[in-house]
Write a structure and sequence with these properties.
Blueprint: H1 4-18, E1 23-28, E2 49-55, E3 58-63, E4 70-75, E5 80-85, E6 100-106, E7 111-116, E8 124-128, H2 135-138, H3 151-160, H4 165-170, H5 180-189, H6 203-224, H7 232-239, E9 258-261, E10 266-269, H8 271-274, H9 283-289
Antiparallel strand pairs: 1-6, 2-3, 3-4, 4-8, 5-7, 6-7, 9-10
Helix pairs in contact: 1-6, 3-6, 5-6
Protein name: Fpg/Nei family DNA glycosylase
Pfam family, one: Fapy_DNA_glyco
GO molecular function: 8-oxo-7,8-dihydroguanine DNA N-glycosylase activity; class I DNA-(apurinic or apyrimidinic site) endonuclease activity; damaged DNA binding; zinc ion binding
Length: about 290
């Protein structure tokens, strides 16, 4: 799933290429992806692109005029992606025949497509006059790269509810933009168990977690900056130290990276760096051994 660094890179990439352009056409291919009916997709036609921003994992393409903007906001979910074309294909797409969900054409013939692989269609597109009209955006927590994400704010979040620290990092209503992959990387950098309870973390633990969050996300954003959209997924994989690397050697201590699997996802960690050398119980294996 694209997380904050990739969405930030996609937003910057799209903003650079749409600057000074106007929308010439919108083609909705997967009607299930469009979650709103007013404004309509055709209402974007003729509008200038003002800028492209980000809200957590949401991409926000804002069109003018300034006095009455319309935002095309997109959540790529687990299997969605944005593909840029210097010359957008003109052949009409057939619904259900491809991964294509939506195409936006600009006035110079360029444009972008939103695609989604697999059968579980969760990609979401909203057309709104204010991003706050989208409930998932309105409920977003603090942006970890924003000035409001301080040690004090993290301390408040950790104390509000006693939960596993990985759950805190992934909860979009508390901290916006971090998902399964970067939470693994942050906790590895912070030398913290993913199952540690938030109220058990002292000031030193939280300062280390705060520093690790900024370090991991900023490095990932920097590594993604300037890359074309087609390279971002591979760049993300190459930058991972533990996520997706079960069975490999930890680059910090050399211990074997372990995995805990759940119904629809898994987490990876280093026992030496994060859990005092003790492997965490893999619930999948525990069920098999009963």
């Amino acid at each position: 799933m694209p997380e904050l660094p990739e969405v930030e890179a996609l937003s910057r990439f799209l903003g650079e290429r749409t600057a000074g352009r106007a929308v010439a056409g919108v083609e909705v291919v997967a009607i299930s992806a469009l979650k709103t009916f007013s404004p309509a997709p055709e209402d974007l036609v003729g509008r200038p692109v003002l800028d492209v921003g980000r809200h957590g994992k949401w991409i926000d393409l804002r069109t003018g005029p300034e006095a009455a903007p319309v935002h095309l906001v997109t959540h790529l979910s687990r299997a969605g992606w944005l593909r840029w074309y210097d010359e957008l294909p003109t052949t009409p797409a057939r619904p259900g025949r491809s991964a294509l969900a939506l195409r936006v054409r600009l006035d110079d013939g360029s444009g972008f497509a939103l695609t989604e692989a697999g059968t579980r269609k969760r990609l979401a597109v909203h057309l709104v006059t204010d991003p706050g009209e989208v409930a998932a955006i309105a409920s977003l927590g603090v942006d970890p790269l924003g000035p409001e994400f301080t040690v004090e704010r993290l301390t408040e979040l950790a104390a509000a509810r006693n939960q596993q620290v990985k759950g805190l990092l992934r909860d979009q209503s508390q901290i916006a933009g971090i998902g399964n992959a970067y939470s693994d990387e942050i906790l590895h950098t912070a030398r913290t168990s993913p199952f540690a309870l938030t109220r058990s973390l002292d000031r030193t633990d939280l300062e280390r977690l705060h520093t690790a969050t900024l370090e991991v996300l900023r490095q990932a954003v920097e590594a993604s900056a300037g890359r074309p959209a087609t390279e971002l997924k591979d760049a993300k994989r190459r930058g991972m130290h533990v996520h997706g690397r079960a069975g490999e050697a930890c680059p910090v201590c050399g211990d074997t990276v372990r995995e805990v699997a759940f119904a629809d996802r898994s987490l990876q960690y280093c026992p030496t760096c994060q859990t005092g050398g003790k492997p965490l119980a893999d619930r999948r294996m525990s069920r098999l051994l009963r």
